[in-house]
Design brief:
The complex is a heterodimer of chains A (526) and B (121). Helices cover 34% and strands 26% of the residues of chain A. Chain A is an alpha/beta fold and 526 residues long. In chain A, the strands form 5 sheets. Chain A has a 9-stranded mixed β-sheet, sandwiched between helices. Chain A is elongated and about 90 Å long. Chain B is an alpha/beta fold and 121 residues long. Chain B has a single domain, classed as Response regulator (Rossmann fold, 3-Layer(aba) Sandwich). Chain B is globular and about 30 Å long. Classes of the chains: A alpha/beta (526), B alpha/beta (121). Chain B: Keywords: Phosphoprotein. Chain B: It holds the Pfam family Response_reg. Chain B: It comes from Archangium violaceum Cb vi76.
Amino acid sequence: MSESETEGTDKAARDPRIQSGIPRLDFILKGGLKLGGIYALMGPPGSGKTILANQLCCNHIQKQEGRCVYMTLLIESHAKMLSHLSTLSFFKPEFIPERLYYISGYQQVREGGFSGLMELIRRTLRDRQATFFVIDGMESAEQFSTSPQAYREFVHGLQAFTNLLGCTTLLVSNVRERTHVENAVVDGVIELSDKLVGPRAVRELTVHKFRGSDYLRGRHEVEITGDGLAIHPRTEIQFARPPEQAHEQRIRMGFGLKRLDEMLDGGLPSGSTTALIGAPGTGKTLLGLCFLVEGARQGQHGTYFGFYEPPPRLIEKAEDVGLPLNRYVKDGRIELVWQPPLEHFMDSLAEQLLEKLRAEDKKERRRLFIDGAEGFRAAAVYPDRVPRFLSALTNQLRMQDVTTVMTDELELFQPELNLPTPELANVVESVLLLRYVELRSQIYRLLSIMKMRESRYDTSLREFRISREGIDVADSFESAEAILSGHGRIRNGGKKKTKAEKPRKKKPGVLKKMLGRGGRGGGRER
Amino acid sequence: MRTILVVEDEFDVQQVVADVLRDEGYEVAVCGNGRDALQSLRVHRPDVVVMDVMMPILSGMQALEEMRKTPGLDGVPVILMSETAPRASAPRHWQAFLKKPFRLEQLLDAVARVSGVAGRA
């Protein structure tokens, strides 16, 4: 009596995965597709299904030394498809035909029905020793089906056979109802979509079902680049449980501006996030660069992540007021990462930033200056995601012990102080406000600390000066008081407005509420 | 030509096992439960029985016990297949056991070995 050759296999061995090799898809699938599983991939024309399926094949061959069969049930020629694929970096023509085998099953299903098609599949997969199998054009197979039951039996039979072979299978089709018979039978359903959101064309990936495993639910943005598909999971669900831990010992991270650092009780707490808000031209960028330069002077690494000014402009601007930014950029202490003004994906930007920071030495105290939140907002396909996104991003930066200063822009002509993202003030530890006042044909800048969680801080308003001699904060509130007690007024304020000109009455903004709480002298917020 | 009786209640598994064995050159008959298998065995004696354990009407284990008590069927080699391993206390009347999900090579190897055929039928 012989014993079983399959007894004793443990659970892990019964649930091996094949990694897709597609950036972040395995993260969404919590490890990849299950070996021997059968999956439906659906989406409208142009959504990237064929690219994804071929990318899976090529990555499977390259990373797992697998063998793939790609069967089309469409009348479209393989030559045309391969010609399109040849422009993508993942595609390796040398894999064909030994490891990547393209065949058409159209004639077989047309003439022999499902039994003829099944016979072709059995023979081909066994002959080619396939470990990954794609059928592209399942809707075509369905058209030859005599009944929904026959189609269901075909998919069941295919599943049983590919499972017996240990061959992971992908059934590619156009968009179908979620309740389609095929989706009920398969181990997982992945949908690619392609739609217009305003003027933007947006591709997204959604996993609707993934048997026997957890996965990241919801829509995730997809980019098709020269390297194939790249998927960007939503930041706010990616870091639900951030793994990194911050340093226990907190230190102060100053700006190198004596009076401002005194107001901040020595500087910003390490690992905290600060919103630096103000209208255009109030000096937010220069103050943020001060923060980086001071860190570099102390030997800390700093990153500028900005959307507005390219590096040469930034360096020129800093050097103009005596900030030695160029020196620290040259010695590598400060890195300037600039996002050109193109269409970005919000989650892709966060990935870029976090991956860059992760690649650096984790033991070092790091400074980050994001200029600014508006860049993320502009990249958001769904603006209502922005508050949760910023919360997740700042939380992740905190966990990586990065001390972050992020600018957010107020409108230039605005009688009230309303943040574009009011929630930002809630997710950051500190808020610094820069603003203008006009007095006798002269514009002055004022700086104040609106909030500083778990820290003492000076709540007085200070004059903030930018000149060729440098950046300076007045050593007392008196100059600010003098400005305000003159005929200081908000730039467009002062004169009475007609009814038509009157701005829409708004609820008091977050900042206004905070201003109401502030007082002269030392403050401490809990 | 070697003959195999595949006894399996799950239609897709029954069909695929039968199909791949036919592809290998075996002559294959199929049944959906233990009772039908016993009836079939009384008429045609196959070289090997490939039988699922959990089936309606009469389980694979019950059918196997019945076979072993029946003269003429007591010597027919049986390959059992199931999602769970049989209890250690169960009388081992089978020649091979395949734990589901198994791979094609495991099925073909077991059938070839039990039927005394090295390689194809």
